[in-house]
Amino acid sequence: MRIGIFGGSFDPVHFGHLLLAECCREQSALDEVWFMPAATPPHKLDKAQAPDRQRIEMLELATGGHRAFRVSTLEIDRGGISYTVDTLSAIVGKHPDAELFLLMGADSLHDLPTWRDPKRICELALPVCVERPDSPSLDLAPIVELVPPERLRQIEACRVTMPSIGLSATDIRRRVADGRSIRYQTPRAVEEYIAAHSLYQA
Predict the structure, then answer these.
(1) pLDDT tier, 134 (very low <50, low <70, confident <90, very high otherwise)
(2) How far apart are CA 121 and CA 75, in angstroms?
(3) What domains are defined for the chain?
(4) How far apart are CA 90 and CA 96, in angstroms?
């Protein structure tokens, strides 16, 4: 089983998230992609989020029609600050025969050395770096000291490309607060859920 792990706040999930997951599934021949909403992302400690249950429900609405997409509540069930290395270790413990792939933007690889135990992360899962036409190309220099040459070659070979889509959860929340439309930025079911639960309103 080849499993892609896609972590984030998903506050809310939007078409950019879904397109990235689908590009990775197809180009990296993944059997499943697990959307992993974070309980408390280490880099967003000072930012309010929609309640955990509502972020999960929006993800379930967005991914429900795709047989290869799953929503995992592992990090939310664990609580506290969500560290990727802890999540991957837990998944390996439960699924020792699975091959794990960590989905991320190519630009995120630059920050990987600042994450908790980045060397172990690269041992537990192969980073799958997604390149967009409007983003910097993949640069392996930041992790050269963390992983052996063979792993670097695997990361470079497993890169994924996707179209530019120009969406962000921050902008969607801002548009909702300003009373503007988010049609065609997130699935219709998620859009209706946001309205029904009065999320992100000023």
Answers:
(1) confident
(2) 16
(3) 2-165 (3.40.50.620)
(4) 10
Question: Does residue 136 register a pLDDT over 90?
Answer: no
b/e string for 64-84 if b means 16 or more Cβ within 10 A?
A: eeeebbbbbebbbeeeeebbb
Q: What are phi and psi of 170, to 5 degrees?
A: -60, -45
DSSP collapsed to 3 states, 126-159: EEEEEECCCCCCCCCHHHCCCCCHHHHHHHHHCC
Evaluate if pTM is beyond 0.70: yes
Neighbours of 119 (CB within 10 A): 15
Query: Which of 171, 16, 124 shows the shortest CA–CA distance to 115?
Result: 124
